[in-house]
Amino acid sequence: MVNRDRARAQARERAEKLVSQMTVEERASQLRYDAPAIERLGVPAYNWWGEALHGVARAGVATSFPQAIGMAATFDPELIHRAGDVAATEGRAKYNAFSAEGDRDIYKGLTFWSPNVNIFRDPRWGRGQETYGEDPYLTARLGVAYVEGLQGDDEKMLKSAACAKHFAVHSGPEAVRHEFNAVATKKDMAETYLPAFKACVQEAGVEAVMGAYNRTNGEPCCGSSTLMKEILRDGWGFKGHYVSDCWAILDFHENHMVTHSMEESAALALKSGCDINCGVTYQYLLKALQEGLVTEEEITEAAVRAFTARYLLGLFDESEYDQIPYEKIECEEHLAVAEQMTGESVVLLKNDGILPLNLQDAKTIAVIGPNANSREALIGNYHGTSSRYITILEGIQDKVGHNGRVLYAEGSHLFKDRVEELAWKNDRIAEAVVAASHSDVVILCVGLNETLEGEEGDTGNSYASGDKDDLNLPQCQRDLMEAVLAVGTPVVVCLMAGSAIDLSLAQEKAAAVLQLWYPGARGGKAVADILFGDRSPSGKLPVTFYHSLAGMPDFEDYSMKGRTYRYMTQEPLYPFGYGLTYADVVVENAQIVSKDAVSRDVKIQVDVVNRGDVETKDVVQVYVKDPESGFAVPNHSLCAFARVSLKAGERQSIELKISGDAFSAVNEEGERVRDSSQYVLFAGTGQPDKRTEELTGNTCVKVEVEF
């Protein structure tokens, strides 16, 4: 972590001096997300609301990365750090250019409300696509990397300000998020829901934390003294600023019913430690002050924290960041990072040998499906604007060129039972069947987009406020898949979605299955590179793909029992951490090279071998199993991973460090305890579970650790 303690102390000192010159009315005005100018003090207007979930969003043209869940599938913290740096660079370029024109509008500042480090605990959650998946260790490592990329490595200044959200227990349901009370045990809090936030604070020095809409254990997250004071500031030493989710404080009295008025809601949030209000409730702070609900000192402290952040960003000084030119936006270097991210994010779920495609054997290729030529299916939610889009169809057309023929058929609507309103039901299936029957291979692109899964209020075509009712594709797409598979032409199913979908039919009957996520605005190029073997797929699932919801706990139940790979009892369709390549990478040996008896930090060395005949990347994964403790997770937990690149036949020895926390368990009081002395480590390119072994034909190497 870059140590900015001295810079923060200096920034706070300057903030205190500036705020002391303001009237209480002026101080209160600066706690709105759309803070007005204070011309007499030379303070320009500033809008705190910025988005950079997978590239700068909602502020015009910017480099477009795969959706966050796709970035998570890379298992590549270094690459995600680079993506954060790209977003920060382009954010600075925009800020420099726009502010010079007097444009200080929403989404054009340097405070980015990213990353989303909530745990994707249930496949129904529409906003799960914004997260780094279901595992707290993976989420923490990738969250830290993105925060550090956004904030830069200058000890004196932030390149941009990252924000870990939504603190703390938030992952659906979207439809009732404004009134919902998420009940989580102390054990689940410490074991699953809090670790990524803690890492972002203590390891990455994240400047901001955003509260969630819901209540957690009875307290609204933007007015919870337990979360904001006891855990965040007193427990973890957080020194940055806290921001509410948008209009969340209004929910205190309108939906949660924990207060009775705007004034009471504003007071509860401020007194609990919420500095910036995304919404309108803090317009009532002065009235709350008049009624004795808040003190002037509390308003002052929030204003000081806000201006400390602005000073840390160098917004009142000259810096080298001021020289970042507008030409950095969508430059070749940044586009190359995005293309690499897409290439590493694609997960090969099944391959009977048909991939990679060979134009000598596949002269005619049918590209079919509602997502085949869809720009919406490229970008996911919280997206920016690209100056160019390359759909899967376009990527394949560009790749094939004049060396073959590409036939295209939409096949179906995304979710309606017909494309043309006056047509018969399934009016595009005949075209799809004809195209398939006239081709040597079919690329079938199915899935969702941000109109079907996402945030409540943003998903116009959704029937569940952004969440999914089940794991099925829309009926029209299921009909399409069955019809195309029945033709007999080999089919490669490409799923474009931000969450787990039931792919049982594709697994049974398709020649190959690829998970593309939402691969970014120009994602079609990298996908085509994979289909035709210019790049080997190497992504791994950051979430479990279930057969169905049978046996899953209720969506509203926040207990981790039965959820995710660490706690589930049923066999998955595709396990967390699973993903094939065009080669055959295995871990052959593993041994402990160092062990600290006090910290319990362990270093493990593994020999990883590419037994295939093509170069590929892959991800070495290490899982820990505690067979002794009564508090350990029932299965095993990811505790280390490393992305490797191997030529055909190449062998490498790599070292991985495992934190001592991995050799502990969380008791019912939420305390980490060391009540075991024997542990088992499993090293491989996937989980040590039966389904992964069945799908890959490989087993993990086992190493015992004793303290």
Structure characterization notes:
The protein has three domains: 323 residues, Glycoside hydrolase, family 3, N-terminal domain (TIM Barrel, Alpha-Beta Barrel); 198 residues, Rossmann fold (3-Layer(aba) Sandwich), CATH 3.40.50.1700; 122 residues, Immunoglobulin-like (Sandwich), CATH 2.60.40. The protein starts with a helix and ends with a strand. The longest helix is centred in the N-terminal third of the chain and has 24 residues. It is α/β, with parallel strands linked by helices and 707 residues long. Strand 15 and strand 16 form a beta hairpin. The radius of gyration is 25 Å and the shape is globular. Helix content is 29%, strand content 17%. It has a six-stranded mixed β-sheet with strand order 9-14-13-12-10-11, with helices on both faces. A four-stranded antiparallel β-sheet has the order 18-17-22-23, with no helix packed on it. The chain is built from 21 helices and 23 strands.
Describe the secondary-structure layout.
Layout: H1 5-20, H2 24-29, E1 34-35, E2 46-47, H3 68-72, H4 77-100, H5 136-151, E3 163-167, E4 181-182, H6 186-193, H7 195-202, E5 208-211, E6 215-216, E7 219-220, H8 225-235, E8 241-243, H9 251-254, H10 262-272, H11 285-290, H12 296-312, H13 332-345, E9 347-351, E10 364-368, H14 376-379, H15 392-400, E11 405-409, H16 429-437, E12 441-447, H17 475-487, E13 491-496, H18 504-509, E14 512-515, H19 523-531, H20 564-567, E15 585-595, E16 602-610, E17 616-625, E18 637-646, E19 651-658, E20 665-666, E21 672-673, E22 678-684, H21 690-696, E23 701-706
Parallel strand pairs: 3-5, 4-6, 5-8, 10-11, 10-12, 12-13, 13-14
Antiparallel strand pairs: 1-2, 6-7, 9-14, 15-16, 16-19, 17-18, 17-22, 20-21, 22-23
Helix pairs in contact: 1-12, 4-5, 4-13, 5-7, 13-19, 15-19, 16-17
